[in-house]
Acyl-protein thioesterase 1
Amino acid sequence: MSYSHQSMGSGSRSARGYEFGRTYVVRPKGKHQATIVWLHGLGDNGSSSSQLLESLPLPNIKWICPTAPSRPVSLLGGFPCTAWFDVGEISEDLRDDIEGLDASAAHIANLLSTEPTDVKVGIGGFSMGAAIALYSTTCYALGRYGNGLPYTINLRATVGLSGWLPGWRSLRSKIESSNEAARRAAWIPVILAHGTSDDVVPCRFGETSAHSLAMAGFRQVVFKPYEGLGHYTVPKEMNEVVHWLASRLGLEGSC
């Protein structure tokens, strides 16, 4: 069986009424053991993600590549483009758009909710996509979204490339207030990778994200800096992700 693309309609709307774009699916060419939702960066779409992922030697993974809604983005002076949530200048004082984060996390969870029970599910992404992947991971650990509604997807792995962790300041206190949250945090594996020459999302945000997760009790966090790498991916980085996923998810015949 060869890789095949399936394009799915949108129809789902975010909390502010922005409609999510088209979803692209790369089906496994081997036994279906895992499904991962992969999230693109600001201004991109699910199609470009699927083209990258279909070339990876992970025959047992089904990739779901949704497209974010087109919305006004504060970072761009209100100019509309595809974005998982609203974001201003990337800085230590960045204010989180919890409503937008929750809406996108719920859309992603809905995409994973119909996967077979024997298939392991995970989330990954690049830049803003990595941010929503990490936010979803904290929702999994806490068992709820930022708005308090229950989060019910049993995530098994998270990949974040060139991104940041929304809500990092308050994460530790939230995790430590719940034994169940602490157990989930300690259990889920997370890999973060970041270029040291990233001038869009500086590497220190990746380092801070990894440190914040570790301090909050996420015991299986790996942080990989890539010397001289800017705000993009390279084969060496993706190869590391491939081997990490195959190992952490116990995939057969990968790599």
Summary: Residues 1-5 have pLDDT under 50 and may be disordered. Helices lie at 46-53, 98-112, 128-142, 168-176, 179-187, 203-215, 235-248. The chain has one domain: 21-249.
